[in-house]
Write a structure and sequence with these properties.
CATH topology: Neuraminidase
Order of helices and strands: HEEEEEEEEEEEEEEEEEEEEEEEEEEEE
CATH superfamily: TolB, C-terminal domain
Protein name: Translocation protein TolB
InterPro entries: 6-blade_b-propeller_TolB-like, PhoX, TAT_signal, WD40
Keywords: Signal
Number of domains: 1
CATH class: Mainly Beta
């Protein structure tokens, strides 16, 4: 069994999600994933929605920015960004952030068991550039502000409970969050060229009102061991959180984050990397680096949001590149899964699987217009594999 196959085998099983120190003596590090043949095969010609997909897959448009969601009276938000799915009885809910300055927030679309839209509504309003975030095991959505000294807001996907600002999770240029129910922590990325990687330890698991913010400490190497150190002043004033701890490892533009099976992966857009933290032995390594592809042109560039499937595959969205969602398999193959055509001035955001793993949701943030008011949110349905 491949090492990553073992690590990715156990997917975060909740209804809220799909289910440089020096090199350590004696530790084994695998080479980053390489260009190869997708388990789904090559991409076919673009469909009527302009999406190139493998055989057996189909797409549909769920919502368009500035237009009412079909079958509802809710106007879909501009610049749709990070997202997640939540089980809702026999159906599910897809939540989506809005990366609009000052009025960003988040919205949601509700589906029944057959996938038909049954409702859409706002779950967070009047916040600033809500970029990515993450689902919690207790079925809330953490919506993160991608601004200097931004906040994390905990929201209700059903839109019943008021959103709550979680100050204890730190003030910095937040990007994504990923919950680890084993260690009972939340991992957090920071979208700065000299950003850090954090974890938040709630005083009580399931309650994010208080706790301890820590930063990952390691050397400058691309692999090695790491430790965690408390951030003395999580509110980041007057000193930014990333500048408070000597030895905190610098990451170039933290983006998406995903936890499964005692492993957390996160992307750094500034250097085209996917990082892997092996939590059982406190080591880190590169799962992918677009500059280290040795067998042809790197298929994945502009790494951004990331999610995972029950097969252990990672699905990484591109901001830039050629507008693809690429797959990284447990046996370290990277290949395109889909490509959006005719939208070169946009980026792909918010990939998330329905609770049954049969549908993948995502957005093109600026659509064909290249404007935040032209965002398009999609669903792709097909024979997603359940085992690697």
């Amino acid at each position: 069994m491949e090492r990553r196959n073992f690590l990715r085998g156990a997917v975060f099983g909740t209804s809220a999600a799909v289910f440089g120190g020096t090199l350590m003596q004696g530790a084994a590090y695998a080479a980053p994933a390489q260009n190869g043949v997708s388990p789904y095969g090559g991409l076919l010609a673009a469909d009527t929605n302009g999406i190139m997909l493998p055989s057996g897959f189909t797409s549909r448009v769920i919502a368009r920015s500035s237009q009412t969601v079909p079958g509802t009276s809710y106007t879909w938000h501009g610049a749709p960004d990070g997202g997640a799915c939540f089980a809702d009885g026999t159906g599910w809910i897809y939540v989506s952030n809005s990366e609009i300055s000052s009025t960003g927030g988040a919205g949601a679309v509700k589906f029944n068991s057959s996938g038909s839209i049954t409702g859409a509504y706002r779950i967070l309003s009047n916040t600033n550039r809500n970029c990515a975030g993450g689902a919690t095991p207790w079925n809330t959505w953490l919506s993160c502000e991608e601004v200097s000294r931004g906040y994390v807001y905990e929201t209700d996907p059903w839109g019943v409970k008021a959103a709550v600002r979680r100050d204890a999770m730190g003030r910095f240029k937040h990007e994504a969050a990923a919950a680890d129910p084993v260690r009972k922590v939340i991992y957090l990325t920071e979208d700065e060229s000299d950003g850090c990687f954090y974890r938040f330890i709630p005083t009580t698991w399931g309650d994010l009102s208080s706790g301890t913010l820590q930063v990952l400490v390691a050397g400058t190497a691309a692999s090695g061991s790491f430790t965690w150190t408390n951030v003395p002043d999580p509110d980041g004033s007057p000193t930014y959180t990333r500048d408070q701890v000597s030895g905190a490892k610098i990451f170039n533009g933290g983006e998406g984050c995903h936890y499964a099976g005692d492993t957390v992966w996160f992307t750094t857009k500034g250097d085209g990397r996917v990082w892997q933290l092996n939590l059982l032995n406190s080591t880190y390594e590169l799962a992918y680096d677009d500059s280290l592809v040795t067998n042809g042109t790197a298929p994945l560039t502009g790494v951004d949001n990331v999610t995972g499937s029950s097969s252990g595959d990672l699905f990484v969205a591109e901001d830039g590149g050629n507008m693809e969602i690429c797959i990284i398999t447990p046996d370290d193959i990277v290949a395109p899964f889909l490509r959006i055509t005719g939208q070169s001035s946009s980026e792909i955001c918010g990939p998330a699987f329905s609770p049954d793993g049969k549908r993948l949701y995502f957005s093109s943030q600026r659509g064909t217009s290249g404007s935040s008011s032209g965002g398009i949110t999609y669903e792709v349905t097909g024979p997603f594999r359940t085992t690697a």
